[in-house]
What we know:
The protein contains five helices and four strands. The protein has 167 residues and is of the alpha/beta class. The chain has a single domain (7-164), classed as 3-Layer(aba) Sandwich (Rossmann fold). Strands 2-1-3-4 form a four-stranded parallel sheet, with helices on one face. Helix 1 (19-27) crosses helix 4 (123-145) and helix 3 packs across helix 4 (123-145).
Amino acid sequence: MEPKKVYNVLFLCTGNSARSVLGEALMNHPALNHGRFKGFSAGSHPKGQVNPWTLETLRHNKFPVDGLRSKSWDEFAAPDAPQMDFVFTVCDQAAAEPCPYWPGQPMTAHWGLPDPAAVEGSDEEKRKAFRDTLMALRRRVEIFASLPLDKLDKLAIQKKLEEIGTR
């Protein structure tokens, strides 16, 4: 029996401190990825550290945080970097945020979400923003991970990826 292909998935955002890191953590959770995906995250202008609310939200929801860090997308453009199969941008165009562009041949889709790190207010309001973002991304990752990628052609996969970004 041939081993299942493991697809590399990159979540991109500008700062790589909240949404994209949440996506990476979700994609790497065995209960969500079914052994078929390896998640990564990066930013076009990384903050240099993961937002503390991101880490708190992941820990509170029982997701491992070991190894999560804010990093530049340049790491994934190096010759020895893992080849990406899918790239999802998670910045929110509605907020006029610049969204990084990923060159190359991976399948791409925009899964924009409001930036929870931009929420001002009480600690509870911030927790809620991060929790809401985690839950929205989780739904998208679950739908994506359930796609029969080996049975769909490239156009059908692209259509599904774009649909997921509207959920």
